[in-house]
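Batch manifest, entry 17 of 40.
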Amino acid sequence: MVAPSVDEKRDLLALMVRSRAFEETAGALAASGEIPGSWLSGIGQEGTLGVIAQLRSDDYLTYTHRGAYGFIGRGCDPKRLLAELLGKQTGYCKGKGGRHIADLEHGILGKSGTIGAHAPLAAGVATAIQIRGDDAVVVSVFGEGTSNRGTTHSSMNMAAIGRLPLVWVCENNSYVGSVPAPVYLAVADVAAMAGAYGIPATIVDGNDVMAVHEAAAEAIARARAGDGPSLLELKTYRTRPFGETGTEQRDQDEIAAWRRRDPINRFRERLVTDGIVTRSEADEITATAEREMSAAARFARESPWPDPAAAFEDLYA
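Output type: structure tokens
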């Protein structure tokens, strides 16, 4: 596999930093009550961008209910994303979707409110790609809690039988809500389930974005070549509570230990050590992202509310 270029590494760092800045902005808006309900943060899991950043414009993504890196990595506009979260008319779904965002321009087809329901969607889109005869791929991201859902298993089986162009990506952050994974899962590694369907699986340090990038490049190339699906399991950790307006129920020493393995800090230090960016350049990337998200929040706040009558529009395709 071809290693990412210097410019690609810089761009990847910028995506990770922008995702974190978006998450922090969304968390603040949730805490102030401006986002209805809550925001389910993916801070600490930005290593997943090592997969998403490699997708082409004609590829597709299904995502979990946690984190913004899927949207940011695919090129969505933070202004419209925050407007959607605030329920404003200028949002991607005209304020009707909340966290359940669809952006067809960037290959993001939305998701169901039922955990695991996006797996059949991913398999269906991959089937359509195969019927069309092009070499686009689908990346379907799910959490370890979703790995025991029937929809996930049946979709993996279908993808294996049809040799569909699909990359399954499990973000194993060790907790199903507030429940430790061993209470919920019979196996230590979700990757073990791939054996039931005869597809390759790779376990990766999800907080090492270059390791994620390398494993994802192989899986994406395999899918694009028509060799079928594979499974990546990213061992990672969310350092925020289950919901931004909720309480933290995990051990604080455990959280602190994982924060020392923060994927952005690790990658930034690696790039500084390798002479790809200077510390001042890295600081400016962060400052630029913070300014961008501040402007996005201002846009969302100032955007109009949808007309109440619009609630009856867009019900059918």
